[in-house]
Amino acid sequence: MTNLQAYVLAVFLVAGSAGVAGAQDAALGEKVFLKCKACHQIGEGAKNAVGPALTGIVGRTAGTYPGYTYSDANKNSGVTWDVAALKDYLKNPRAKIPGTKMIFPGLPKDEDIDNVIAYLKQFGADGKKS
To answer: Mind listing the pLDDT tens digit for each residue in 36-58?
Structure first.
């Protein structure tokens, strides 16, 4: 193997491992979600609690889950909960939606945010895991 071949192989292996390290893990996200469970439910039979049920959150417009009394800031934010919006919100809720009622300060680790989003994405609007 030439030095160039060894270098190309090394670059390929490092790039490949970075992709794996950055992959979302729903099982780890379920563990991170334990921080959210004090206020939110998800899945079949989930109900609003201190915060709204998060069943079917991905793709939903902010402030629209039935039966929950949202802040005006959340209702009027115009946010659709796609992955990018969720990342911003979970990092710092009050920066994403100033005036939100959510008092949780956010998740400091990007990896935790990615994993909890992977967990949330599993649940459709009917509460069933896909």
So the answer is: 999 999 999 999 999 999 999 99
Any idea what the Cα angle at residue 54 is, between residues 125 and 72, rounded to 5°? Answer: 110
* Cα Rg, the chain, nearest whole Å: 18
Residue 129's SS3 state is strand
How far apart CA 89 and CA 34 sit, in angstroms, is: 17
Prediction pTM value: 0.81
Write the class of the CATH domain 25-121. Answer: mainly alpha
**Ranges of each domain in the chain:** 25-121
* 95/15 Cα distance (integer angstroms): 33
